[in-house]
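Field reference: sequence -> structure
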Amino acid sequence: MNFSSKLIEEAVNAFATLPGIGKKTALRLVLHLVNQPGENVEQFADAIVKMRQHIKFCETCHNLSDEPLCAICADPRRDRGVVCIVESIRDVMAIEDTSQYRGLYHVLGGVISPIEGIGPGDLNIDTLAQRIQQGEIREIIMAVNPTIEGDTTIFYISKKLKDTDLKISTIARGVSFGGELEYADELTLGRSIVARVSYRTED
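Structure field:
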């Protein structure tokens, strides 16, 4: 791809680093910005810079937040006795879109995957244990993506919690095995949360 402007080339290369954005799409976005009023482009750039500089991870659940506590953890109307364990922040957003769940969350930041060198120590499991020790939680919902790695992670966490009095459940398998929560339709995902099933491990 030939460019008559080095500035355009640099901007296209920057956009092309984003997931799912190829060079042609990046060029289309850059040319769109070139044709926008300067103040619009400045607002666009400023929003991205502010986001990167000031975004935080919730001290309790590891969700994205503007404050030390995310809006979900800080909401007194949420059921603090139920915690939904998810793999990623995108899964929180997907479940929230269903409007079927009113508890709290805990974002693991991934799943156990020996092939990729990801072990339990690389995930937010210790902070989950700390939350449970506080004694307010009565149920854990395992809403981890239904994959082999996800099932391994569910099994590991459930074994760690086997000596507690917690109710441990998993979302119903309306979400197909090997799928990802963020791509499930809202009705299927919502029903999976509502129709969650008890999870037990063999000693």
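Note: The chain has two domains: 6-54, 77-198.
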